[in-house]
Write a structure and sequence with these properties.
The protein is mostly helical and 99 residues long. It contains three helices and two strands, in the order H-H-E-E-H. Strands 1-2 form a two-stranded antiparallel sheet. Strand 1 and strand 2 form a beta hairpin.
Length: 99
């Protein structure tokens, strides 16, 4: 059935989009923890991750205060963002499975 093939293609696209964005968020987190030496390529990758992930994280930073532990700021917004992204992905997959 052509409709079933289209739904499967959309489900695959949504899954891969979710996976790529999840990897970008995790890469952003790791890049923010590890001080990278100045390198043009690394700087471009870090800037790309910032440009892609930070607007999404800012949605959560408005509502989630940064914790201060011994002078270190702990940002919980990436954790909440990943959980929210996973829940939305799961809901979209369920809706697409129901078609």
């Amino acid at each position: 059935m052509p409709f079933a093939d289209a739904v499967d293609t959309i489900k695959d696209f949504v899954y891969y989009l979710y996976l790529v964005y999840l990897i970008c968020i995790i890469g952003y987190i790791i890049a923010s923890w590890i001080p990278l030496p100045y390198n043009t390529t690394l700087n471009r990758i870090q800037r790309f991750l910032y440009d892609v992930v930070d607007p999404y994280l800012r949605l959560f930073r408005r509502f989630i205060p940064q914790l201060s532990l011994g002078g270190l700021g702990l940002d919980l917004s990436p954790i909440v963002a990943i959980i929210t992204l996973t829940i939305v992905h799961s809901l979209v997959q369920r809706v697409l499975s129901g078609l």
